[in-house]
Amino acid sequence: MSSVQEETSRADTDPRLLEALASLNRIGAAINRISPRDSVNVEATLQLTAESATKVVPGASAVIYAYDPNERAFDLASRVSAGESDQTAARPGQAPLDAPRPQGIGWRAIGQRRRVLSYEEADLDIHPAKVRAGARAMACYPLVVAHQPVGVLYVYLHQDRQFSQLELLMLDNFVNQAAMALYQARRLASIQRDLARKEDELTRLRRAGILISSRLRLEETLESILQMAMEVTGAEYGIFRLVDERGLLVTRAIAGERMDRPQVGALPIDESSVMGWVGKYRQPVCIHDLQAAPWVLVYRPLDARLKMRSELAVPLVGSGGRLEGVLNLESPVVGAFSEEDSHLLQALATQAVIAIQEVRLLDALQEVAQLLLSQPRQQVLDRLATLACDLLDASASAIWLLDGPRLLRQSESGNAQQAAWLPVNGSLIGQAVQRREQVETHEGDQDPRVPPAERSEALAWTRALAAPLLTSDDHQPIGAFSVCSCGTDRERPAASEWDGKVLACLAHYATLAVQNTARQEALRTSQEQHAVAETFAVVGDIAANVLHHLNNKVGSIPVRVQGIEDKCQKALLADGYLASNLEEIERSASEALAAVRESLSHLNPIHPVPIQVAPCVAEAISTSRLPADVTIHLGGLEQLPPVVAGQRVLALVFANLLSNAAEAMQGVGTVEIGGTADGAWVEIYVTDTGPGIPPELHERIFELNDASRSSTRPGRLGFGLWWVKTLMARLGGSVGVESDGAHGTTFRLRLPQAQEPS
After folding, report:
1. How buried is residue 44: exposed, middle or buried, by Cβ count under 10 Å (0-12/13-18/19+)?
2. Does the predicted TM-score (pTM) go above 0.90?
3. Domains detected in the chain
């Protein structure tokens, strides 16, 4: 009992113990100062550990080597030592003289995860280099953290003795500190490598984004993406396939050297090929060896002359869940791609999807811009509806224009027939118009905002997105643009921000098409009015000159007849035939002059004034001399506000339309005349029950060379519908025709409404 107390007392007063505790404190503080960017702190900590070991074991030397468990090898460059007087350290360009031997004490300590003392291992001896340096005994400690060896600590005694229990106990503590220092250094070094790799990947991705976004054409974009993918992963071959309208993967870009006959045929999206499998399940795949099952059964060679051993393929999926294509890389080396390559390629694929969508949208907008300049409104709207289905992967789309409390369908695309009109109040699409913002639903078949009329029997759609058509000047709604997806797409995510932006762009172009048509019509009307005014000014001058000459020539006929009657009265009394002919000549000349004056009076400038429509219609009916079997029905003309026109001119317009209707009905039928007021305009319609006018002739009937046959009725020049259009243009209005070619014809006259005096 007394001996134990004496040993404890000596331990309490042993200065080596105090030195050991102080060293442990310094080593712990040094470990805490280790940073991922400071390798000097790691070496200094290990050096401090080795020096502390020599202080607690007087006359000893210490060496530390790091160990890599992945490579199963010692890192000879990591050697630190203390207390050495020999030259066993590494010389420049050479390995240390005391490097661990394959079957030495260091390997046994690593393999058995325990302390090894040289004097306890009969089958092992100390390294010859250290023996020559004077080592007589040694202790080898494995540096272990979390059951993983990270290095070894050698402590050499240069006296013929064994380590005391106190020395071994203190070394046990130094071992733990040294192990933690190495582990911490290795972990931080790994973090540093990861950060450097991530920084390099981000730099490459940024450069890839800049490179991709600088391409304008889709083919150039795909080639840039493929080249960048091969560069960042080290692949030697690559192929880019996109999904076409048939649902097949078609080759759009290919890269690699020494390819003789690359297999670029279309692939189905199924399990019959690697790319088809990736497209079907929309999951990336990294194949270590293409010769291994199950991929060897479905792999399709990129080139028959090339033998590929590893493959990396990722799907290109848009924000709305749409499969855009598959990016595939291959290599003749087994295990050429890692999971990190897969993650990097997926990040690049995300940028590729964005670039592809942007290029597609840009191409679509360029196409629509050209259509706006060259094609009629309906063709532009039809193309926009088709593009909406393609760009947004929608099942159906439609463009609606506002008509009072209703939305009239102007164009549609997709696999379903939608309603011809919808109410603004109580419909989902109507909400977009009322709110002047996009609205969306994910349960179209259950959403109470979707009335039965808005649903399609042929398309049980569940997702819908609608955007308003707003004018560019005052942001007033004129309609809406809607897209929807069918019930089979219920699992698709909600419309993304990209979907909303694309639909907003298309809606803007639809608004431009509608407004452009209205502006072109207004410009055309203005040009026609200007041309008519100039023409009538010239014709008026010519008519005045003609009338002057007619007055000189024809006007002298009655005067000469009267002279003959005065001078030859006896002869006329004797010859009744001669007298009656002279009277007829005088009457005909007078009537001819009156008829010419009446007809040419319409060429004089018109001075529009506020007039009522009903009296003009009544005058036209009374002067048209319609057949008895033609019935006229008037509706609400007395309630129409005054219009700006000339009464005689407007009456002549109605007279021409009534005569045209009577001729079309062959003297038997009904003509209905009515009208409505709409803002600054008054619209009057004239509808007959005749055979109608084929749609392809609607524009030609107003041409001068297609005018109806001349009429001998007084007050008519006989120019038919051309005359109607010309007079309406002079009045600042317009005329249009509606007919299906089988059920009558309706002419619609638009005249400016007279402003009430303030």
Report:
1. middle
2. no
3. 11-191 (3.30.450.40), 215-253+266-362 (3.30.450.40), 390-523 (3.30.450.40), 606-752 (3.30.565.10)
